[in-house]
Amino acid sequence: MSTPIYERALGRDFARLQPELQTYFSLAPGSGHYGVGEGVFEVVGCRQRWLRPLLRLASGEQSFFPEYGEGIPFRIENHAHLDPFGRSSLTARREIFFPGITRLFHDTTSFDDSGSRQGLVDYVGRYRRLVTDLNLSVTAGGRLRGVSESSRLFLAPLRIPLPAAFDAKAYAEQWWEPGQGGTGKHRIQVKVIQPQIGLVLVYAGLFDYRLEPYPSGITAPGYLPERARPDRWERRV
Asked: Is 136 left (phi over 0), alpha (psi -120 to 50) or beta?
């Protein structure tokens, strides 16, 4: 259980990641630390004005939002923990500081081996009503690429697979960009594309990253700060 979930998902390919990415994705439950990233999104949000009113309806889920901006500061916290069902997980809490409003974007990525498909599943939003399978790969240059596949909605007892024609896929790439004098920054680029609509959401930017200790030296594998907890958990995949 101490193996980080991204290492479990990538297997031997984890060692091909840039060293800085290996550090970023090496958080494991019980480490006593969490990750903090602070930086600027060069672009973030929905570029299509006509789509923004629809995204505003979903903003309460803390997964999509209607704003769009350039040069927008943001902060991310990464927390490795066991979820209430015993799965090794990584919860990310993002704050995006648009002028006049701060948007939150939450998700929990868990390693699930309960069925025939072993791998990462990503639960999105404060109510974890949307879940997708994550497929990871490592580029020749050591970047991490991820593609979301096969989304499902959970509405009360209903489990609703989204048809391919309507499902939006997220394409993500993260890497370390060296700078002068031995410095550098993490970079991330994500695009969410829906076949009928096109580009729904984009964010791309750079940030610094560090590890912080939990207060009072907490090392319990199931610990997750209140600010990072969802309003509900979902066990189904």
From this structure: beta
